[in-house]
């Protein structure tokens, strides 16, 4: 798929570029990233492509045009705007998730402070607040320690989140990866992960959190996913 892109695909790529570029500002706004760390990607609907940010470019300089279009094997689609740059160093992990989880439309990675502090200790965040039951349906699990550069991070994300309600995983000693129905949904999961990581951390400083009974977690999750809001978020499993 080089050289010629039909109009419908081009429109879908352009819309995804806009979304992904704009959503990086949300990572900054919510204090989830420093310098150029962290990244958002979005699957281009109806294609085997995704859009991700270029590596090492300041958040202030991200535009729809300099986002990079990749195939699901993580290679850059030549001849498209931005293709002269290298994609995010986490591209292989994002690509692995899109290849193996076809229902996922967005992936986010951050080293947000509180969540990464849980990751550094290799401890799952227990589900002890109702907002967490709503959003994640249980604990936020820990994935394996994995070195950047091959597929081991992607494998760890998929192995941990497959069959799990959580859209977020704490990769041990590293940071947060989230998945979503689209890039915005994955960004929301990243924002909520840091929020609950902070709250449960502070709770721990004050004493032992009170567990929420499993049946209440189930009821909260079901209600939030299926009833709450303007339209269902769509449950990811
Ligand atoms: Zn990282």
From TrEMBL:
<dbReference type="GO" id="GO:0005829">
    <property type="term" value="C:cytosol"/>
</dbReference>
<dbReference type="GO" id="GO:0019323">
    <property type="term" value="P:pentose catabolic process"/>
</dbReference>
<dbReference type="InterPro" id="IPR036409">
    <property type="entry name" value="Aldolase_II/adducin_N_sf"/>
</dbReference>
<dbReference type="InterPro" id="IPR050197">
    <property type="entry name" value="Aldolase_class_II_sugar_metab"/>
</dbReference>
<keyword id="KW-0413">Isomerase</keyword>
<dbReference type="Pfam" id="PF00596">
    <property type="entry name" value="Aldolase_II"/>
</dbReference>
<dbReference type="GO" id="GO:0008742">
    <property type="term" value="F:L-ribulose-phosphate 4-epimerase activity"/>
</dbReference>
<protein>
    <recommendedName>
        <fullName>L-ribulose-5-phosphate 4-epimerase</fullName>
        <ecNumber>5.1.3.4</ecNumber>
    </recommendedName>
</protein>
<comment type="similarity">
    <text>Belongs to the aldolase class II family. AraD/FucA subfamily.</text>
</comment>
<feature type="domain" description="Class II aldolase/adducin N-terminal">
    <location>
        <begin position="18"/>
        <end position="201"/>
    </location>
</feature>
<dbReference type="InterPro" id="IPR001303">
    <property type="entry name" value="Aldolase_II/adducin_N"/>
</dbReference>
<dbReference type="GO" id="GO:0016832">
    <property type="term" value="F:aldehyde-lyase activity"/>
</dbReference>
<keyword id="KW-0862">Zinc</keyword>
<keyword id="KW-0479">Metal-binding</keyword>
<dbReference type="GO" id="GO:0046872">
    <property type="term" value="F:metal ion binding"/>
</dbReference>
């Amino acid at each position: 798929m080089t050289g010629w892109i039909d109009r419908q695909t081009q429109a879908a790529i352009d819309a995804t570029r806009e979304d992904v570029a704009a959503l990086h500002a949300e990572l900054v706004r919510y204090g989830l990233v420093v310098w150029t760390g962290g990244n958002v990607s979005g699957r281009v609907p109806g294609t085997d492509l995704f859009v991700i940010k270029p590596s090492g470019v300041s958040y202030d300089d991200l535009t729809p045009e300099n986002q990079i279009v990749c195939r699901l094997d993580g290679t850059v689609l030549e001849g498209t705007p931005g293709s002269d740059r290298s994609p995010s160093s986490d591209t292989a992990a994002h690509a692995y998730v899109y290849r193996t989880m076809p229902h996922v439309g967005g992936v986010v990675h951050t080293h947000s402070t509180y969540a990464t502090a849980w990751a550094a200790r290799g401890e799952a965040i227990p589900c002890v607040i109702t907002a967490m039951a709503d959003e994640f349906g249980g604990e936020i699990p820990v994935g394996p320690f994995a070195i950047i550069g091959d597929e081991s991070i992607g494998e760890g994300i998929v192995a941990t989140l497959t069959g799990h309600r959580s859209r977020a995983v704490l990769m041990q000693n590293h940071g947060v990866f989230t998945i979503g129905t689209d890039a915005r949904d994955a960004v929301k999961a990243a924002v909520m992960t840091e929020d609950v990581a902070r709250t449960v951390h502070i709770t721990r400083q004050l004493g032992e959190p009170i567990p929420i009974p499993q049946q209440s977690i189930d009821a909260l999750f079901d209600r939030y996913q299926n009833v709450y809001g303007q339209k269902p978020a769509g449950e990811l499993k």
